[in-house]
Design a protein that fits this description.
- The chain is 74% helix and 5% strand.
- By secondary structure, the protein is mainly alpha-helical.
- It has a two-stranded antiparallel sheet.
- The longest helix has 31 residues, at 66-96.
- The protein starts with 10 loop residues before the first helix and ends with a helix.
Length: 182
């Protein structure tokens, strides 16, 4: 085991792991007996994001071998994009479920965007493999950060903005006070 320390740029991931585990487990148990589609999509997305966080954070504790870290980063990216696909599908459900054709097209586009982003992740991560850098006794995991990779990541993360705005637009229509605070 090559445990020289925790990479400084992954501390937020280590903090997020138990939070996503709680969100995933609590949401799946909660949504099992209720017909709350938003909770179900978010919970499934949390499961995928938990897997992504584990794939990003755990391997670097045991190895600094670039090929292994690159493969686990690609797998982590894939899980992250699956999580964000759940958010895009929720956005389509919230905004377009009344219009079946638009709803189907949005779902197809979300799946296509996800597959394209996974392809970009594979290409960019193989071109610039992940590696560990130690400077001034600080461990860092260096990951790909090309303009193309960042652009496609930005498109995927826009799903959070779309769902957030959708929730804000629903606040005036909420009947109970607890619904207004979700």
């Amino acid at each position: 085991m090559n445990m020289q320390g925790i990479p400084l740029n992954l501390i937020h991931v280590y903090v997020g792991i138990p939070l996503f585990a709680y969100l995933a487990i609590h949401g799946l148990v909660f949504s099992k007996n209720r017909n709350n589609i938003a909770t179900r999509y978010i919970s499934i997305g949390a499961v995928f994001f938990l897997l992504a966080a584990l794939l990003y954070a755990i391997p670097v504790l045991f190895t600094h071998e670039s090929a292994t870290l690159t493969l686990t980063t690609i797998a982590g990216d894939t899980m992250q994009y699956a999580s964000l696909l759940c958010v895009w599908l929720l956005a389509a459900q919230l905004l377009l479920s009344r219009w079946k054709i638009a709803f189907v097209i949005a779902n197809i586009l979300a799946c296509t965007l996800t597959m394209a982003t996974i392809g970009v992740s594979i290409r960019e991560n193989l071109a610039a493999p992940a590696h560990v850098v130690i400077t001034d006794s600080t461990l860092q995991l260096e990951l790909v950060s090309s303009p193309s990779y960042n652009f496609w990541n930005g498109l995927m993360f826009m799903s959070l903005l779309v769902v957030g705005v959708s929730f804000l637009l629903q606040v005036p229509q909420a009947e109970r006070k607890s619904q207004k605070y979700r």
